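step: validate -> pass
step: tokenize input -> pass
step: predict -> running
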Amino acid sequence: MTRLAVVPIYVSEHSGLVRGLVPLLARLLPADGELVTPWFDPERAFDASRGQYHSTRLLAELLDGPSAGYDRVLGVTSVDLFIPVLTYVFGEAQLDGRAAAVSLHRLRPEAYGLPVDDALLSDRLLKESLHELGHTFGLLHCLEPDCVMHSSTYVEDIDLKSAAFCGDCRARLF
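step: predict -> pass
step: emit ->
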């Protein structure tokens, strides 16, 4: 069984949501998850010129130190993430690697002028977490629109897909 560390980063207002994510991931992935306190300073990933956090730098921080005892590590944060070639990302992962990160920042309905909806936020967080962790298990973007591995450019894309792997992706995963 894969050992998964879920690392909450700046999520105090969503700590219950992140705690609830751990058993969901353990049910849907070949992984046994546990919540792990961050051991690094996330500010090292902050880019002042953009006012955002560089997700690739965050992945590097997640790979250091105590994470060596885990097969996979997932950082969950409420800060806005980016990579240099994109304005923002919902998350990032190392393909066939150990680290992934997801951000709640643009998954929140209120980021789009809608009312707070914790159920919708939880659903989006689960889908993005499964998607990014799927990449760490070597899965690529899937052409099946329902598959959790289908690419998501906009938050509406996340809402349209399911929180499940299609048959082909599931077979590759397991």
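step: describe -> The two ends are 11 Å apart (CA to CA).
step: cleanup -> pass
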